[in-house]
Write a structure and sequence with these properties.
Elements (H helix, E strand, L loop, with lengths): L1 E6 L2 E4 L4 E9 L6 E7 L6 E7 L4 E3 L7 E6 L4 E6 L8 E11 L3 E6 L3 E6 L1
Parallel strand pairs: 2-11
Antiparallel strand pairs: 1-3, 3-8, 4-5, 4-9, 5-6, 7-8, 9-10, 9-11
Length: 120
């Protein structure tokens, strides 16, 4: 079992910055990679950024150049630094952790989500 808790969301003006945090607890040694997703009102959930155990990162086109995903293993925490925020970034952001094992299967864990609202 893995538990994920997000924090750091809120209201910010367009062009501003926000830093989201996700603290993992439980069987954290089983986590192979982590990611941030978001879901805007009336829209489907979309991937924002991913990070693997060795620190390799990947970003959605809409996030590239503005967002940065990072992790602090000592604190069991993953961060999403969001700069140059736009109203289109307004959504509920979710922390995700994945565990992959050859014979056991794939397991996904989710946080409760945290709201980010960007005003124009």
């Amino acid at each position: 079992q893995v538990q994920l808790v997000e924090s750091g969301g809120g209201l910010v003006q367009a062009g501003g910055s926000l830093r989201l945090s996700c603290v993992a607890s439980g069987s954290i040694l089983s986590i192979n990679g982590m990611a941030w997703y978001r879901r805007a009102l009336g829209q489907q959930r979309e991937l924002v950024a991913t990070i693997t155990s060795d620190g390799s990162t990947n970003y959605a086109d809409s996030s590239k150049g503005r967002f940065t995903i990072s992790r602090d293993n000592a604190k069991n925490t993953v961060y999403l630094q969001m700069n140059s925020l736009k109203p289109e970034d307004t959504a509920r952001y979710y922390c995700n952790a994945i565990s992959v094992r050859t014979y056991t299967g794939v397991f996904n864990y989710w946080g409760q989500g945290i709201q980010v609202t960007v005003s124009s």
